[in-house]
Amino acid sequence: MLELDDVHVFYGTIRALDGVSLRVELGELVALIGSNGAGKSTTLKAISGLLRPASGAIRLEGRDISRDSTDRIVDLGISHCPEGRRIFGRLTVRENLVVGGIQRPAAQVNQDIDMVGEMFPRLRDRLKQAGGTLSGGEQQMLAIARALMSRPRLLLLDEPSLGLAPLMVEHIFEIIADLKRQGLTILLVEQNVHHALDIADRAYVLETGRVGLEGPAAELRHDPRVEHSYLGQ
Question: How buried is 80 (Cβ within 10 angstroms: 0-12 exposed, 13-18 middle, 19+ buried)?
Fold first, then answer.
């Protein structure tokens, strides 16, 4: 479904991605792990059109999207849930959801607000509440729900457990696992390597802008290099 082929990205003169190649098959949950500054968030931004690759190709179902606008990429079925949630604090929960579906007909948006309300009962009960007044975990739910409002075929999730209490982390990962069971294709960037490898089909390990390791998540979970560097074992 998604393929990155030798992608290079720069911030000015600083090379952030140095020939990254990876793939995500239809229906898979693929984890992208690595230390801070390895290029994980940069990879997602390049896929969603927030950054332009200097070279290389990003293909969605064989079509090169590396020069497409972010709006076009959303239309093609990719939705990006960014690190730090980035909800609109002064807007209500409902208004945040409407923004997520802004490119879709109003009738469908209203239907999908009901749909995500079933998925996230806490949000359904707070539709008129300002997003900024929600707890951290509720804001993360809202960020995911907002990303789902475009009806994506591929969801990019960037650090969904960051800064959350342990019980809320468990709940967020239950939600992600349920989305996968429903057939959604997911590329997950996550600092919590234990949880990421537990629910992923496959994983890539980024090291200073390059793919250092890749393989089935269950195998990487017990790879001595991953255990030592990222799992603290």
Answer: buried
The whole model's pTM is what?
Answer: 0.92
| 223-to-20, 38, 194 alpha-carbon distances in Å | 21, 19, 13
Residues 6+ apart with CB under 8 A from 44: 32, 80, 82, 156, 158, 187, 189
Report the alpha-carbon distance of residue 180 to residue 154 in Å, rounded.
Answer: 10
The segment with the largest mean pLDDT, out of 17-31, 80-94, 99-113, 115-129, is: 17-31
The amino acid at 204: Y
Amino acid letter, 61 = E
DSSP state letter for 132: G
* Mean pLDDT across the chain: 92
Tell whether the torsion through CA atoms of 153, 154, 156 and 160 is positive or negative.
Answer: positive
Closest CA to 1 of 72, 41, 70, 59: 59
Check: CB of residue 104 under 8 Å from CB of residue 150. Answer: yes
Name residue 210's beta-bridge partners: 207
DSSP letter at 29? E
Encode pLDDT of 189-223 as tens digits.
Answer: 998 898 999 999 999 999 999 999 999 999 998 88
How many degrees, rounded to 5, is the angle at CA 151 between CA 112 and CA 193? 110
Q: How far apart are CA 231 and CA 213, in angstroms?
A: 15
